Structure formats: C-alpha cells, structure tokens
Amino acid sequence: MPSHCPYCALQCGTVLTERAGTASVRPSLFPVNQGGLCRKGWTAPELLHDRERLREPWVRNARGVLVRSDWDSALDRVGDELRRLVAAHGPDAVGVFGGGGLTNEKAYLLGKFARLALGTSRIDYNGRFCMAAAATAGKAAFGLDRGLPFPVTDLAEAGVVLLAGANPAETMPPLMRHLANADLVVIDPRESATAARAALHLRPRPGTDLALALGLLHVAVTEGWCDMDYVARRTVGFERAWARARAWWPEQVERVTGVAAADQREAVRMLASARRGYVLTGRGAEQHENGSDTVSGFVNLALALGLPGTPGNGYGCLTGQGNGQGGREHGQKADQLPGYRLITDPRARAEVAEVWGIAPEELPGPGLDATRLLESAAWEDGIRALLVFGSNPVLSAPHSVRVHECLSRLDLLVVADFLPSETAQRADVVLPTTQWAEEEGTMTNLEGRVLRRREVLPPPGSARSDLEVLHELAVRLGQDPARFPTHAPTVFDELARASAGGPADYSGIDYQRLDAEEALHWPCPRGTGESPHPGTPRMFLDSFAHPDGRARFVAVDWSPTAGVGERQPPLVATTGRIMEQYQTGVQTRRVHELSVSAPEGFVRLHPDVAARAGVSQDQRTVIRSEHGEVRARAELDESIRRDTVFLPIHYGGGEGANLLTGPETDPSSGIPEFKVCPVSITAEEVP
Ligand code: SF4
After folding, report:
1. How many helices (H) and strands (E) does the chain have?
2. Which of 19, 397, 495, 628 could bridge 659 with an S-S bond, Cβ 3.0-4.6 Å?
C-alpha cells in the first residue's frame, strides 16, 4: 500500500505492508526520496506496536492518580467540565493546542471544533515554535507562504545552494541527494553534518544571522551582483531595505558576527555567479526573537540576486514537522481560517462561515500565539482548560519551568495522543488516538504537495481517530453531529470547499485524484471546464501573490537582543535536532535502534570550554541559565565555537533543553528564541 513516513516534512514515500498484524515499510520511488529513507523512516513501524501505546482512556481520580477508564466516562467528564467552564467564564476560558503532525483533516476539524463547538478564539499549535517566522516573512515578501514554492527535485539542477540555519543532512537525509550536484554555502555556528559537506561554511556568532544577511546584501549591492532589472520589474521596496543594509560593510559585519569579510564576499560571489541558485532557510535562522526579520534578511538577498520566481532558482523554507505546511493552512493557527486566510479578513470569514452554516459574526477573532496561550493559564481572564491534540508542549514550549507552573493552574488538561508524552502524563484526561498506519488522511509536505496516508492496521485497544474524538466532544457540547464528520474523505471535501478562493486552495483536490495522481501541489482550484486543475508545483513564475504581482523587500535591521549584544556573552546555549530523534522524542525515543544510538541528552562543547569548567568527556555536567538548569553528559567537540554549547531538543526529565530557554518571542510571528540562551557550565558534583 503506498503511504508516507510519519515523521518530517519531506514525507518520504513508502510502501506499507501488513503481514500477520505487523506492519513493515520499504521506500518507494516518490520524487522527494526516490528510493531512500533515513533511519527514522525505516524503523517507524515499531511505533505501531510499542508496549506503552495508549489503548484506552485514562482519567485522573480524586487521589490524583491516572486510572484506566472507558470512552463514555472520559468524554462525559470532559464535556461536563467544558460546559461548566464556558458557562461560568466564557468560551475563551478554554484553549486548544494542536500539532504540526496532525493530518489536514484533523487540523481542519480541530479549528472548526474550537471556533464553532467551543466558540473560543484561543487555539494555536506547535508549529508556532518552528516555522512561524518563515511563514510571516514569506507572506510579507511574496504575498503567501508555501515552504518551497518549487519541487524538491528542482534543487538537483542547482549550481549553488545557500543554507541558512538548515541541517538537512541530519534532519531529512534523503533531501541531500537533490543537493549532491550543488556547491553548498552553509551558515551555521556549528560544524553540522551539512556544514561538513559545504564548499563554504560561515559560522556566525549565535544570534547574529540577521547582521550577516544584511552584510551579504551589502556585498551584493556594492560589488555589482544585484539583478537590478529583476529588482525593477518584479519587486518593490528595494531602496528602503538598502537604506538599512547600507551601513553593514563586511568589516562591520565581521566585528558583530565573527564571519570574515572575505568569506562574506565569496558567499555572494558563489551564489550570484551560479547558473542556478537557491537560498533556503531552516530553524537556525528562524527560531529567534528577531526570526521574521532574519528570514526577511535572507529573502532580501535572494530578491536582490533575482532568484525567487525565476525558473531554476528560488527561495524556500525547509519546513520541519510532518504536516508543518498543511498544519498551518487549515485553521488551527490563532490568526488563520481554512485556505490559509486571515481570520480578520471579512471575505474569508463570510466564505468559511457559509461552509460551516453560521453567520460570520459568530466566528471568534484572532487568538493568542502558542507561548501566550500557555502563559494565559496564569491570567485572570486566561484559559482554565486546555485541550492538547498531538503535541507535547511540556517539552517543546520555551521556558519549561514556567510552562509547568501555568499548566498546574488549569482546572482541566486533556491530551489526545497515541503515546504517553510528558504532557499526557500531567493530564486530567488522556484520550488514546490512532496514528499514521491506522487511519486515512492527507498531509501536505514542505513543497505544498498534498499526499495520502493510508490505513493498513486496526488501532490497538479502543483507540480512536482524533476526528471521532472531536465528533464526540462536539455532540456533548450540543452540536449537530452532522457538522463534525468522522470519515476522513468527507472532512477533506469540506476542507477543500472551505479553502476555495484562499491562497492554499484545495478545492480541486479530492481523494480520488490523490489516489490516481499520487499527489498534487496547491493551489489547486476547482476547474471550470472539462479538465481539472493540474496543481501548481512551481509558484511565482509570472507574478507574486501581492495584488500588484510584485515581491516586497522588507526593510530590516539587526540590533542586540536579550541573548546577544554588541559584546559577546561568554557562553550561549543553542538547541537543535539530531539525526536519530524527532521533535520531543516521544516517538523516536521508543524505537529500539534509535534509542540505542542516541539514548540520552547531552551537551556538546569545545574542549577548551570543558577544561575551563573542569569537565571531561562523558562527565555529567550542569548547564545553568537564568531560567533553569539542565543536567546532561558532556560531549567534547573540537569543531564547535568556544562561545557556544549545543543541546538536542529531544529529551525530557532534567535533560530538557527548554529548561534553559526563556520567554522571549518574535513580535511579528510569535516564534520563540530557541537558539541563543546565555548559560554557564560546571561539572555535576558527585555526592
Ligand atoms: Fe521520514 Fe523525514 Fe526520514 Fe524521510 S527524511 S524517512 S520523511 S524522517
């Protein structure tokens, strides 16, 4: 049965086989992976049979202990409590927290459930923590955001690819086959697996990526690499952006970032003189309190060189989560309605309201970004209940210590998931759900390609699809059951109608087409004639999505932030991913082969830093920030900067990287600062 890997946004194609109740996968020739899979993909079926799989609902009893329950009791308890809270405090007393791994159908129905059945504005999702900055910057520049506005396979023709804060060699290894012919310019403070393959590696001081982007634009302009014909024909705003970048001479950039002026010039020369060139950003550039501006800085560079919307060239964001793209299009984002339309847009409200059979004024307004949604549990007028679907904010949200405090104030925490995540372990009610090979659904990968996931196994125990859970809860909140279908193709058809006319228009897609054509890129509007719309693999070739068809330079500038100033803090922690694990590790930490390879958290640091701290290889260390502390094993690494330590994000307990991070978020996108956190390090005292 053709299907797709359950993990990252590449959504590698697989052939899924069931034999005697056990599933196995092998790679398919799907374009993004062309017969390859990473270790996570190969081992994914193990999750289906995990012995800790949630099989029945759990409810916390009067003594504070989670005990097994049955569906009716668990759902009744949730329904009763939600009705009580809404009646007493209003609908915004209930928050909904979604996930970038949910199928399009689940993300859509979750948004509808929040706004229609609960009437709350307070819904957001964990994608806020990863690609929100790129989404904001992409929309500002191009008029809409699609991670890659071209197929991954186009990268195979590239001469040079500049990767800003992206490490696909570890996070999505099959992508590297498309980069095999390109010279890579990698911007990363760390000697990552991708940087190790680079023709040129620029290692800026953490938190200064934007200054580097401004410097690269400066070089492009002053050394004559700009495509001024393209700038004049296809963009607006160059002069304002240049007015900010004008002061960023390479030598000044070198003082702030530590990247040699000669390397800045070489990076621009390589990219501008390549026959085909791309700029790609990842979490390293995005997860900053100036994340949107940082991405805009790299988009400005790409525009100045005439790359976006030019055949064989472009700018894109390497979205991370499995349905990170689709997850942000269908209404589980605080400011979005289905079709990737703003909830404040009167036309979008009217069209979605019509599909939902309500008046536009019944739709709530914009809610709170994910960090503030969690924080609002401590507010007088904040949330008193939180429903979490397919997410683990206890580990993934910044400033874990504060998140724990806020969650403990809730009257009700409900978690729907298929494994007992750290968030589920804190819940009052845990609802067991199906996972990838046990359900029908669609995902949208990082290229905006909508694809089918297929069911080959029955769910274990009494686990149910999230669609059924939402249906049952909606009924308990007095909704017409027909408004919350549980049949995935039916939900998809409604989603497609609700998206019609929006940037992410799915109205020409249905399950029959996906089955026949394998996958389709949005926008794919419903055709008017005989032939259906073919989908849009490449965007912006004729015009960008702004009303005048032109892309926008965004005027941005670098200034010191909370974590990094003009003067160097002695040591900063930066967080990220490793090859063997995925997100907060709830899934991959349970896979034997992966957990043997990467069983525990660690802190990677330079031997000189270790020597100063009295720490040796494999010794337990304490890393402290003003927000908390982590205890982890030391891994000494000659290649890491002497002002930087690295911690993976995949582990819990005392190894949770977000015990160190603080509450700072980007004002434009709400993405937290995960990459720069001043810390100190000492050896752990042995009692
Ligand atoms: Fe799965 Fe991503 Fe690995 Fe492909 S690269 S096999 S989608 S985790």
Report:
1. 22, 29
2. 628
Q: Is 335 exposed, middle or buried (0-12, 13-18, 19+ CB in 10 A)?
A: middle
Please report which residue ranges of 246-379 form alpha helices under DSSP H.
Answer: 250-257, 261-273, 283-286, 291-304, 324-327, 346-356, 370-375
DSSP letter at 151 equals -
Pairing label, strands 602-605, 629-636: parallel
Instruction: Give the domain ranges of the chain.
Output: 2-49, 58-129+329-504, 132-318, 572-683
Residue with tokens 């799915």: 506
> How far is it, in rounded angstroms, from Cα 168 to Cα 156?
15
Look up residue 22 and give its two tokens. 């056990």
Asked whether 180 and 202 are in contact (CB, 8 A), the reply is: no
441 lines ligand 1 (CB under 6 A): no
Closest CA to 490 of 440, 453, 433: 440
SS3 category, 484:
coil
Query: Distance of alpha carbon 242 from its chain centroid, rounded?
Result: 30
Is the Cβ–Cβ distance between 603 and 631 less than 8 Å?
A: no
Beta strands 629-636 and 680-683 are unpaired
Quick one: which atom of ligand 1 is closest to the CA of 174? Answer: 5
Pick the residue whose CA is nearest to atom 3 on ligand 1: 38
Mutation test residue for ligand 1: of 4, 12, 435, the one with most atoms within 8 Å of CB: 12
Q: In sequence order, what are the residues at sequence separation of 6 or more whose Cβ sits closer than 8 angstroms to the Cβ of residue 177?
A: 34, 36, 156
Q: Is the CB of 37 within 6 Å of ligand 1? A: yes
Torsion of CA 269, 274, 279, 282, to 10 degrees: -90
> For residue 412, what are its two tokens?
């009700």
Q: Is 620 exposed, middle or buried (0-12, 13-18, 19+ CB in 10 A)?
A: middle
Taking CA atoms only, the protein residue closest to ligand 1 atom 5 is 172
- Name which residue sits closest to atom 2 of ligand 1, judged by CA: 8
CATH of domain 2-49: 2.20.25.90
Tokens for 570? 């002695």
For residue 476, what pLDDT is reported?
98
Q: Which amino acid is at 406?
A: C
> Domain 58-129+329-504 belongs to what topology?
Rossmann fold (3.40.50)
Atom from ligand 1 closest to the CA of residue 175:
5
What pLDDT is attached to residue 565?
Answer: 60
> Longest Cα pair distance anywhere in the chain, in angstroms?
77
- List residues bridging with 218 in a β-sheet: none
Segments of the chain scoring below 50 in pLDDT: none
Interface predicted TM-score of the whole assembly (ipTM), two decimals: 1.00
Q: Is 257 helix (H, G, I), strand (E, B) or coil?
A: helix
Can you name the CATH fold of 572-683? Answer: Barwin-like endoglucanases (2.40.40)
- Residue 630: what pLDDT? 97
Measured from the Cα of 173, ligand 1's closest atom is 5
- 132-318 topology per CATH: Dimethylsulfoxide Reductase; domain 2 (3.40.228)
> Rounded to whole angstroms, how far apart are CA atoms 341 and 346?
10
Lookup result for tokens 């706004």: 115
